[in-house]
Amino acid sequence: DVVMTQSPLSLPVTLGQPASISCRSSQSLVYSDGDTYLNWFHQRPGQSPRRLIYKVSNRDSGVPDRFSGSGSGTDFTLKISRVEAEDVGVYYCMQGTHWPRTFGQGTKVEIK
Amino acid sequence: QVQLVESGGGVVQPGRSLRLSCAASGFTFSTYAMHWVRQAPGKGLEWVALISSDGNNKLYADSVKGRLTISRDNSKNILFLQLNSLRPEDTAVYYCARHWGADYWGQGTLVTVSS
């Protein structure tokens, strides 16, 4: 199985400051069609996950533009340009290239 | 708008069975593959199974293969997960999610396996 490794696992941030989460995969996530299927999800406490980013860098509808995704191959990053209070929770990366689908361990973002 | 509503969770003894449902609305259910993903209490997300839009192709995590069965009824817009031979480690919130990329998720249903 493809192992997804996130870092850091805990990220205290100051409101208005940037934040960055890394996600590394044990195998390349480039699919045979040329696309890279790496998604990011946000889960607030007590809620179900919400997808933020698909195929590395595409924001889902309604996702604020302070969220951005980048990366290629096995190395990916989610950035929040200016953290707001509603951004707290756990962020997960998920690979959609190989079976079984696998998630990172999650990165808990909290306000300092 | 897209809605996914899971149901069927509860407390069940080890070795027993349970069937979860996910009622879909707000989109053409029969044209989308669907996932089940679970989350043990206080833990991360674990992909469980996927079924193709027509129901002919099914994929499972090794941890549940042979015990859990995914199915769907496209005439009623419902996704199912049959859980057999339940173990304490199957205790989790079970979510259904739409499409290969898991773009929409339900609110989840809690399954607790305990004697």
Mean pLDDT, all residues of chain B: 97
Coarse shape of chain A: globular
Label the structural class of chain B.
mainly beta
Could you tell me the mean pLDDT of chain A? Answer: 97
The profile of the biggest β sheet of chain A is: 7 strands, mixed
Runs of chain B with pLDDT <50, length 5+? none
Q: Compute the gyration radius of chain B: what is it?
A: 13 Å
SSE pattern of chain B, N- to C-terminal: EEEEEEEEEE
Shape of chain B: globular
Distance between the termini of chain A: 36 Å
Strand portion of chain B: over 45%
Biggest sheet overview of chain B: 6 strands, mixed
Major interchain interface with per-chain residue totals: A-B, 25 and 21 residues
Helix content of chain A: under 10%
Number of strands of chain B: 10
Brief write-up:
The complex is a heterodimer of chains A (112) and B (115). Chain A has 112 residues and is mainly beta.
Outline the structure in words.
- The complex is a heterodimer of chains A (112) and B (115).
- Helices cover 0% and strands 48% of the residues of chain A.
- Chain A has strands at residues 4-7, 10-13, 19-25, 38-43, 50-54, 58-59, 67-72, 75-80, 89-95, 102-103, 107-111.
- In chain A, a hairpin with a 6-residue loop joins strand 9 (89-95) and strand 10.
- Chain B is an all-beta fold and 115 residues long.
- In chain B, 0% of the residues lie in helices and 49% in strands.
- In chain B, the strands form two sheets. Chain B has a six-stranded mixed β-sheet, with no helix packed on it. In chain B, strands 1-3-8-7 form a four-stranded antiparallel β-sheet, with no helix packed on it.
- The termini of chain B are far apart.
- In chain B, 38% of the residues are buried.
- The A-B interface holds A 1, 37, 39, 41, 43, 47-51, 54-55, 60, 90, 92, 94, 96, 99-106 and B 35, 37, 44-47, 50, 59-62, 95, 100-108.
